[in-house]
Amino acid sequence: MLDYVVKLTKDATKVRKDDIEKLRAVGFDDRGILQITMIAAWFNSINRVADALGVGRE
Questions:
Q1: What pLDDT, in 10s, does the model give residues 16-47?
Q2: Alpha-carbon dihedral 9, 12, 14, 20, rounded to 10 degrees
Q3: CA of 46: how far to CAs of 6, 12, 27, in Å?
Q4: Apex CA 16: angle with CA 12 and CA 20, to 5°?
Q5: What's the N-to-C CA distance of the chain in angstroms?
Q6: pLDDT at 56
Q7: How confident is the model at residue 57 (pLDDT cuts 50, 70, 90)?
Q8: What's the Cα-to-Cα distance from 26 to each of 5, 11, 21, 32, 46, rounded to whole Å?
Q9: How far is it, in rounded angstroms, from Cα 18 to Cα 49?
Q10: Measured CA distances, 48 to 11, 55, 56 (Å)
Q11: d(CA 11, CA 25)
């Protein structure tokens, strides 16, 4: 799962069907994969907004 999230975070266009199949092979169903994807994407989005606005920088 973490390998998938790192790949999604670095460049989501590089996620392929075999990445999804790897998640299924270790027990994630489609709902779980969707949840992983949406949570990671949401955190990435929120972090980019925070970075752009300088949130947390001194």
A1: 999 999 999 999 999 999 999 999 999 999 99
A2: 90
A3: 16, 16, 28
A4: 100
A5: 33
A6: 82
A7: confident
A8: 15, 23, 9, 11, 28
A9: 30
A10: 14, 10, 12
A11: 22
Distance, CA of 50 to chain centre: 17
How large is the angle between the packed helices 17-25 and 2-11, nearest 10 degrees? 160
Between the alpha carbon of residue 22 and those of residues 16, 25, 27, 43, 55, the distances in Å are 10, 5, 9, 22, 36
Q: Three-state SS for 20?
A: helix
Q: Quote the tokens at residue 21.
A: 């199949």
